[in-house]
Amino acid sequence: MATTMRIDAATEVRTKAQAARRAARVLAQTPTAMKNQALRAVAEALSEQQDEILAANKEDLAAATAAGLPAYTQDRLLLNPARLEAIAADVRDVAALPDPVGEVIEMRTVESGIQVGRQRVPLGVIGVVYEARPNVTIDIASLAVKSGNAVVLRGGSDAIHSNLALARVLGRVMTEVGLPAGVVQLIETTDRQSVTALLRARGLIDVVIPRGGADLINFCVEHATVPVIETGAGVCHTYVDADADTEKARKVTFNAKVRRPSICNALDTLLIHEAIAPRLLPTLADELHGANVELRCDPGAAALLANRPHVKAASESDYGTEFLDYIMAVKLVPDFEAALDHIAHYGSGHSEAIITENYTTGQRFINEVDAAAVYLNASTQFTDGAQFGLGAEVGISTQKLHARGPMALGEMTTYKWIIYGNGHTRP
Length: 427
Known about the structure:
The protein is globular. Helix 2 packs across helix 7 (160-177) and helix 3 (50-66) packs antiparallel against helix 7 (160-177). It has helices spanning 9-27, 32-48, 50-66, 71-77, 81-96, 135-146, 160-177, 193-199, 214-223, 246-258, 277-290, 299-304, 336-346, 359-368, and strands spanning 104-109, 115-122, 125-130, 150-154, 184-186, 207-211, 236-240, 267-273, 294-297, 311-313, 327-333, 351-355, 373-376, 396-397, 405-406, 413-420. The chain folds into 2 domains: 9-231 and 394-420, Aldehyde Dehydrogenase, Chain A, domain 1 (3-Layer(aba) Sandwich), CATH 3.40.605; 236-382, 3-Layer(aba) Sandwich (Aldehyde Dehydrogenase, Chain A, domain 2). By secondary structure, it is an alpha/beta fold. Helices cover 41% and strands 19% of the residues.
């Protein structure tokens, strides 16, 4: 079962948040070497205890199949030896990164003679609410430990067995290396009241980070009394300019849609300049058809793709939808400005790309598109902490405070002002 103790959701959240708060004070002062030792031990344990973890994951997958959950949800839920090794590699990468805690960002002497600076410090206790992605349990725990934060995790019910197995691994490792027992806490009840309780644990939780779809994020924002950092929901576009290299456009577009369509940085809407569409779209559409991608097209695109079975007429709601599936909207645009207007109207501020050989147009796109990650001639699937050289990530922030884009170690800290004097008094 999800929980072994018959306690109500609010009590479990409060008890575990209190334990995390006590642990956070200790972890904030823990030496880097000890935190790195813990992370390396976690990576090893993922391999050593692979059978236990994968057996638990099979329970979740069987339940997902029985419940008829969509293919993209089951893909997010799936763990296998290769994915576990990739998760372990990310943990090792985090261990190898510089520790942000204690870094002095700046120090200067002001007119009065005092020295004033800022020093990075942990956020404290982070609450994370996420859906059916058990890898997030390890990603967040590793980042939390390295950045000196305790964390209270509330994963989705679809991944409860996987998350419990991973939490047991984390708990054993933390105890063995001598870190506080409350550093990583998993809410074991699947009662939805636990989410609300976490969102309202003001004074115990310093910030909540939801990682999932738009519905989850909106619920957290609307019900929280704790500060919330919005992450995850991505309506991502690729615009193929009139001056694009068609082979480059085909390659990048295919990767952005097909590599993993179930992730938040997957391509949702392809915008194509009408001047290049006849040379690019039929060939690209046939390649996408081979990968079972359904195209929802505006009239101009549909006319170029007549009699293809995987082509359907787009509805207004298709533009602005995060499909998370083998579905892509397609729209022809008359010029660069029309592409910018479309992205500004329908985008979610996540990841946007342009394919062009025109330097001026590319730079205008980079400068004018308002999103967390803006690409020139590259797939939006690169929006990822590890791909940006940051190690694992908590999520992709689509807001502008306090972080934007992949939230990694630096984004899991805040700062305090530090002031040095020598008997200085203010006149």
